[in-house]
Amino acid sequence: MIKEFRDFIAKGNVMDLAVGIIIGAAFTAIVKSLVDDLINPVIGLIIGGIDFSNMYVVLSGDVPPGTSLAAARETHAALFAYGSFITAVINFLIIAFVVFLLVKAVNKLKDSAVKKEPAAPAGPTELDVLLQIRDSLRK
To answer: Where are the domains of the chain?
Structure first.
């Protein structure tokens, strides 16, 4: 049983998957930094510095007006934090677009690195060979 487990782990698929997960975790940090540190500030300038993350509606409880979402959550009031959801959707769309651009660039690089080999000339088909055999048997 241990030998089977070792063989399973040593298979290329499992190792490739492990490497993919590790690279994916590191890549996530890069993309998150790109979005949080470079793209979101530019978008904030474009939309006038609106911060959606602190937009909420108090459903029940006592929260003073102008309180940040974090402070409002500490009061244990029931909140409808629609701003956090809007921020999450915007961040998702930005991250998805950045990943799309990166994958597109990597695929383009990969395609240019792999030189396309010229197609081998097509040989005779099976029908052509059978016709040649028939003709040579007739002679």
So the answer is: 1-49, 51-115
